[in-house]
Amino acid sequence: MEKFGKSQPAGRREDLRFLTGKGQYVDDIAPAGALHAIFLRSMVAHGEITALDLSAAREMPGVHLVLDAAGLEALGVELGMKGARLKNADGTMGAGPERPVLARDRVRHVGEAVAVIVAETVAQAKDAAEAIVLDIDEAPAILAMTPGSNAIHPEAPCNLAYDWEAGNAATTDAAFAAAAHHVSLEVIHNRIIVNAMEPRGAWADWADGRLHFCVNGQGVWNQKGELARMLNLPREAVRVTNPDVGGGFGMKAMTYPEYVVIAAASRALVRPVRWISERTEGMLTDNAGRDLVAQAELAFDADLKITGYRVNLVSNLGAYNSQFAQPIQSELFSKVLTGVYDIQAAHMRAVGVYTNTTPVDAYRGAGRPEAILTLERVVDEAARVLRADPFDLRSRSFIKSFPYKTVVGELIDVGDFDRVLARAKVEGDVAGFAARQAEARVRGKLRGLGLATYIECILGDATETARLTLDADGGATLYVGTQSNGQGHETVYARMVSEQTGIDLDKVRIIQGDSDAIATGGGTGGSRSVTVQGTATRATVQTVLAAFRDFLSDEWQVAGVEFDGLAFGAPGTNLRLTLAEAAEIARNRGRTDLLDTSRKTTLDGRSFPNGAHIAEVEIDPQTGALTLDRYTVVDDFGTLIAPELAVGQVHGGVAQGFGQAVTEVGVYDAQGQLLTASFMDYAMPRADDLPMFHFATEPVPSIMNPLGMKGCGEAGTVGALGAVSNAVRDALAQAGVDRVDMPFTPLRIWTLLEEAGYDAH
Questions:
Q1: Using CA of residue 8, residue 11, residue 13, residue 14, what is the dihedral sign?
Q2: Which spans in 454-533 are helix H?
Q3: Which residue among 142, 143, 248, 623 has the highest number of C-beta atoms inside a 10 angstrom radius?
Q4: What's the CATH number where 571 sits?
Q5: How far from chain centre, in Å, is Cα 117?
Q6: Which among 95, 87, 85, 92 has a CA at the least distance from the CA of 164?
């Protein structure tokens, strides 16, 4: 991959079909004649189901099937979904309450599915839903993020899901006792509704004793295993496919109740059944993100080096456990607990609490944005309290020597955080900030600068398989175990194969998202895709080339056959064949073993993307309106495989971080009703909210994979939250405001200024 490894530009080949409306999304490709499923959902947050009469709905025109939990069980469906459990600090196992795919006996959040109606049309299914008699004896909604006496689940009498810890409490306490300075800060992480461009959807088709389940997910193997388990089917009887997917961000990685139900309905009716979420339906039922409160404390010595870090988290899990093997606000938070700093005395305690709200699970970054925001907010607060330069204060505590083992056992292979920060200071024109701030003051505006340094780690399965076939038309097909949700995987993988084999780019085909075509895979999430899949692809290509070198040595009866990136040749001869030409000879010789090659690889360890973000905001104190005026990113992603796509990932990540920091928040009232259940009430960031981003790199290639990559998919969000928050804190400090909490809406900023007594005139 000589040319490709040197970061040649890569135009996205997917874009033509996406931009011309030729994408093939799940609702575009449902089988002809598929029936439509609609779910009857709870209108209250908490209560006991006292009546559920489906009889009238079953008699409605066009209706083929109406099921509740009991009906599903009668079809042999396992109702309980799997959720992640965590071991408590005392060694006991945390709570693991059942999450039924259709509520039985009780409902636990608004929008929880109670029954399904399958009909010829959506309208007929909705009419039938209106005919269902559902009575719920409403109970008080539990919304407090503290363990309490009113139980949502009998398995968790105080609504406590887990009480977990990491690090060393005794060492940390000793560090604080000996410290010259202490600084503490509470950081509130607002709830986010993911709102992928394409809502969740799926269709199921049962035929000839086998299930084909098509879903807009982030991989096919999780759903394959869960559907087989819950429908009591052998795994080989389930095929799962992912077509084009319009955004995932972690939210689409899971198995949801609707998937099991429509699969069971298709099997019962021996007809294809389809379902696509409406936007408000998705806001009520898609896994939410974030929603936690962190109390963070830093200890410093007399030279202002960090000597200890302590953080206590209380996380809102919603009504049920997440599906991640590592709960988001505990183990994943701990992966980057101490950030880019050399802190060996650190401790975190994480408490998870059930509430009558939609479950919370992975959202872009999954634990790492929460950890870095918490740390970078308190570091910035320390700079203010200790009257230190925020750049210098960070540098004093940076990790300087690598490899570095963190207090929680993560091994950071390489890095140069000082170089990254120095570059960011120059690229962000920090030296010119004072003049820009003074000019804004003349115009009656408050201008603030915010810095955040970050590190994250790629997550997910470290093992991946690639399969490469050499096709009769002279092209090649690569089968991958990841799933694009719009990131440009087809472009990246095709270019990798083309650059390494000499096969024309237009003749390289990428197959993804089909459990029949691809035996195993880790799916997409945790910034793993190109790093892990790219490593497997490289290994597979090397295996192919080695096999053909041996084959041609025998064919040509010469030694020393080599491949120069375009063709095979032998020293001292004019013999020369492209891989496609060599494959045709192998095909004619009956050597089909050379035409279909798979390799499974496992990374040696995680890689750790890192960087520095600098945001400048301007606030109009008369209205509270915030403008993000300048934004600078300097990242270390190691080897950049496709620079243009990496920049796009950073832009999208920063936009999502800005959205959480400034415009987005999921709000429930005292009865557990979601008040932000439409785009009239939930404010997504728009293009005119954002400036042109300035992006630069200071790469230090990773030594944990042969590509030297570090991953880039979540980095923008990980850094943006702290940078924007610290910029707002800096701007409002000029007006006497001493605490800020996301989201920084105009009303919230205006209220803070009013409470501080700031005269905007």
A1: positive
A2: 489-501
A3: 248
A4: 3.30.365.10
A5: 32
A6: 87
| 466 in a structural domain | yes
710-756 residue pLDDT tens: 999 999 999 999 999 999 999 999 999 999 999 999 999 999 999 99
CB of 718 within 8 A of CB of 369? Answer: yes
A 10 A CB-CB count for 233 gives 18
What span, in angstroms and rounded, lies between the C-alpha atoms of 394 and 169?
23
**Are 707 and 685 in a shared domain?**
yes
Q: How does pLDDT run across 475-489, given as a tens digit for each residue?
A: 999 999 999 998 999
pLDDT over 60 (residue 642): yes
Residue type, 341: Y
Is the pLDDT at 10 greater than 60? The verdict is: no
C-alpha closest to that of 40 among 253, 213, 261, 246: 261
d(CA 557, CA 579): 18
Whether residue 582 sits in one domain with residue 701: no
Alpha carbon distance 514, 533 (integer Å) = 16
Q: Are residues 614 and 584 in the same domain?
A: no
3-state secondary structure of 513: coil
Residue 25 within a domain: no
Are 446 and 474 in the same domain? no
Categorize the per-residue pLDDT at 417 as very low, low, confident or very high, splitting at 50, 70 and 90: very high
Same domain? For 551 and 618 the reply is no
- 736 vs 743: CA distance, rounded Å: 19
Residue 93 tokens, joined: 């196992």
Burial state string for 102-122 with b = 16 or more CB within 10 A and e = fewer than 16: bbbebbbbbbbbbbbbbbeee
pLDDT, the chain, mean: 95
Same domain, 633 and 759: yes
What does the buried/exposed string (b/e) look like for 368-407 if buried means 16 or more CB atoms within 10 Å of the residue's CB? Answer: bbbbbbbbbbbbbbbbbbeebebbebbbbbbbeeeebebb
> In the listed set 558, 583, 602, which residue is the last one of a domain according to the structure?
602
- Residues 274-313, buried b or exposed e (16+ Cβ, 10 A)? bbbbeeebbbbbbbbbbbbbbbbbbbbbeebbbbbbbbbb
* Cα 287 to Cα 301: distance, rounded to the nearest angstrom: 42
Residues 77 and 80: their CA atoms lie apart, in Å, by 9
Alpha carbons 524 and 330: distance in angstroms, whole number? 21
Tokens representing 414 are 């390489």
Tokens 């890689």 correspond to 607
Cα 718 to Cα 216, 366, 650, 661, 723: the distances in Å are: 25, 9, 10, 12, 10
Q: Show which of 584, 602, 620 is a domain's final residue.
A: 602
Tokens of residue 344, six digits: 């060996």
What DSSP state is assigned to residue 666?
Answer: -
For 105-177, strand residue ranges (E) read 106-107, 113-119, 133-138, 160-167
pLDDT in tens, 72-128: 999 999 999 989 999 999 999 999 999 999 999 999 999 999 999 999 999 999 999
Determine the angle formed by the axes of helices 715-733 and 643-658, rounding to 10 degrees.
40
pTM: predicted TM-score of the whole model, two decimal places: 0.96
Residue 497 forms part of a structural domain? yes
Residues 761 and 739 in one domain: yes
In a domain, 84, yes or no: no
Angle at 219 between CA 213 and CA 221, to 5 degrees: 70
Q: What is the mean pLDDT of residues 28-43?
A: 98
272/198 Cα distance (integer angstroms): 21
Torsion, CA 531, CA 533, CA 536, CA 538, rounded to 10 = -70
- Domain range for 500 is 460-602
- Residue 352 phi/psi, 5° resolution? -105, 135
Give the whole-angstrom CA distance, residue 583 versus residue 596.
10
Closest CA to 725 of 183, 182, 145, 188: 188
Q: With beta carbons less than 8 A apart as the criterion, state whether 682 and 193 touch.
A: yes
Same domain as 576, residue 663: no
